[in-house]
Amino acid sequence: MENLAELLRERCQADPNKSAFLVKELDKWREITWLQVDQMVERVAAGLLSCGIRPGDRLAILGNTRLEWTLSDLAAIRIGAVSVGIYQTLSPDQCRYILEDSGTKALFVENREQREKVAPLLKDLPDLKTIITWDADDDRHISMEKLMQTGKESLSSTPELVRDYESAIRSDQIAIIIYTSGTTGPPKGACLTHKNILAELEQINQVFNPDDVGEIMMFFLPLSHVGERVPGQFMRIARGITAAYVRDINKVLDDIAEIKPTFFGSVPRIFEKAYARIQNEVNNASPLKRNLFRWAENTGRQVSRLKQKKEPIPIGLKIRYNLADKLVLHKIRDLFGGRVKYFLSSSAPIALDIIEFFHACGLLILEAYGQTEVSCFCTLSLPDSYRFGSVGKAMPDTELRIAEDGEILVKGEIVFKKYLNQPDLTANTLTEDGWIKTGDIGRLDEDGFLWITGRKKEIIITSGGKNVTPSNIEFLLMKDPLIEAAMVHGDRRNFLTALISLSPDHIAVWGEKTGYPGLDFEAYTKLPEMLELVQKRVDEANLALAKFETIKKFAILPRPLQVETGELTPTMKIRRKIVEEKYRQTLDSFYE
Fold first, then answer.
1. Alpha-carbon torsion 351, 355, 361, 363, what sign?
2. Beta strands of 172-228 (E only): which ranges?
3. What is this structure's pTM?
4. Which of the residues 111, 418, 470, 509 could staple to 426 if both were Cys, CB 3.0 to 4.6 A apart?
5. Where do the CATH 3.40.50.980 domains begin and end in the chain?
6. C-alpha to C-alpha distances, 95 to 39, 142, 176, 446, nearest whole angstrom
């Protein structure tokens, strides 16, 4: 297969009447077949050609994850244009940077709000000539509907218009540009070719049996992110998996119960929210139900630990587990529709306690590792090959190596082509013989499982000359679901300190359980009992650390770290410099 346009064409021809996507309208799920997808994408593509878009031109998409996002993306790809995703939560200045850096010539926006966000930028963006609005509200702007009508008219006179462009797409052409979140400095445009993405899909296909994934999944993470785009959108096209669009991520757990997906991939936050919701309900239940749940959970955890070691389950424990499952544990699976075979978690570590809890309930969370620059995943945990805390083994046809300084190096056809407009950075990231320096620190165990231990650029050097990997310490702190985020500080200081951000969901559960229901977030953070509890968690983490790695002082932040305030990237990673600057006075006070 030469390109992604061919991938789409083959799927639409193979399963024209099969359900491709589900869209919720007036509380009902509407089915979109592959034939309809083919027709809509071709019309949008022809409409773009009528607007002057040509192969190689950049076309940006700014909006929430929905059907129109996919149609816009696939239409750009079918005419050999380059699709550029923009997170809908980005500020006008951040949008300006991406639009200018990419040289975008056409922009899809979701609605008036997003259109008005970029309108003041247009005078400084001479390349951007066309804006198409999905939810049109007047006749002064090009609507998606109008674009498709224009495309339909073009195709009526020239039926092979789009196919002629498809046939000219080469595998080494750039298909999409994904701007990394940028924990330090401005985002970088990672250029992925058709060949990169097809290689990623092929490698996933080799290790994940179609029966392990099933026939229906969900869209709810940003399609601007490589995870929802490549092993999400494009994998579903490759395998013909029906996908349902969740319009409100805050209601994803409600939609899951309706859709009943057979495979579910997400960032850790969704699993953390589900865990908090379950624990809250248990804590508010009657003593009898609460004790029954804890007995069932404990029984499930005993079974989980034996399965992890691949040891036999004693007959007595097996009987108790079957009873626990019948009375309690199956209800947890029902929260996710009752048909999920496996979960996949990536982008950040997930607390081992949460992984084991869901495993105890019969739901296996598989962790994976990768980054935009390797087309998403380069390692995967598999249903028959996993170790909790590890991110799995290298995918087929992908090589892993650990450099002398501990940095993870990756090689294979999944490795990206370049950073847009940044040749020096590209040269510093890619070696002459094709290895990419990931910037992550890790180790490979004797069986080939990869364990992530930190970020190279985030290593702290104390005033005593000790090198410390903060993510190791932060992960220990975040083993407690109550701690949503932690940032260790101490570069060029004489000891380490930490800023602690609590989970709004878990703090509410804690409040109900301890007799402080209904307080606002900041009030919880100031309670002496909360300070004592967090101190206990810090002390427990310190027991596992060398003396120079221990946290000597900490502060509980008065509100959660947020994407909207710039403290977190859209993929929920801490922007350390911004957080340090915002809480500079607090950090400095630790050392006075």
1. positive
2. 174-179, 189-193, 216-219
3. 0.86
4. 418
5. 4-169
6. 31, 20, 17, 45
